[in-house]
Amino acid sequence: MVNVIKNVKIAGEWKDLIIKEGMIKEIKAASNVADTDSYDARGLLYLPAFQDMHCHLDKHLVGEQWRSLQPFITLPKQLQFEKSLLETMENDVNTRVRLMAELMLQHGTTKIRTHVDIDRTLGLKHLEAVVELRKQMKGIMEIEIVAFPQQGLLLSDSVDVAKDALRNGADLIGGVDPAGLEKRVDASLETMFSLSKEFAKGIDLHLHDPGHLGKYTIDRVTELTKQAKQEANVAVSHAYCLGMLSDDELQDTYQALRENDISIISSVPIDRPMPRLQSMIDNEISFLVGTDNIQDAWSPFGDGDILRRGSRLAEKNGWVTDEQLIAAYSYITGRSLEPVIGEKADFVLVDAQNIQQAMAIVPRREAVFAGGNVIAEKGELLDNCR
Ligand SMILES: [Zn+2]
Questions:
Q1: CA–centroid distance, residue 382 to ligand 1 (Å)
Q2: Whole-model pTM over 0.90
Q3: Which positions fall inside the Amidohydrolase domain (predicted)?
Q4: Whether residue 140 sits in one domain with residue 24
């Protein structure tokens, strides 16, 4: 099937995009020929679709009655609170994961990495819901699944259930604070790496531990990655410690992250330090962004819009020049900034002059395309992907 998207603004010029079998086949000067089969973008700006590399589809309060949260006191207390809150949810987990995926799609996010809770009481219930959703969303949304022992891989005795998860659809093994929560840095990390090796899966660790404790953990991750000599698919999410220590203190850590091709993933927090973007760039460390807590037990805020998060990334880092705003956009998309022949036709149309203005004003998504098909218009999802 061939689709034609007419009058798309790309680098200041109006173009027609010819889509074949979900891919960009041709990019032509706008023809202005009346054509009832084509989609007329009327000069709206082309933006590549987004990727959200850290989220939790299975535990949010979107679609639920308002719940009162409590301030964060300690991680174990917060985990207890979250567990009890999840037991009172009105929507079942299948409905919940779909609601969040739909929210992200209507913002223009067509690739995500979601951490999914697993533990001995929950088993694979949440994971199965996301695996099912991934089947339903095939061709529309790419979903990477992290088997996430939120209550601690060792602390909650979840190694067996993690193995089950890795056999049944999880792409990566997750973990959380090997020091602060698990209290066994080496044993916890070594278990993650042995699971990674046994099942040939990646690793994505939640690391909130501050300062030198966090740095020590990252240093162990880099050593274990080097020892494992595996294909580089290791990430550390949050890594607040990299925003707490000086660049001088972190030189060796930066070098090991770069040499072992380990990614740092941030949700761009405004209430605590984050890895310094300029240091990530200067040290050539792979850096990715996710929305993380969206209206959940940890935070009542968030709307699942990664463009808004990209805008926050630029603002928090004081990035205001055209070059910087465009660079900031590259952290929320895994795609070329302009359409490229042969790429999957996932893109967004907005009313903005250029990418830098879109980053600054976060406009409504006038249309979202996945595989060349329009799936959302004027910020609302269409029925073809429900
Ligand atoms: Zn998370």
A1: 29
A2: yes
A3: 89-363
A4: no
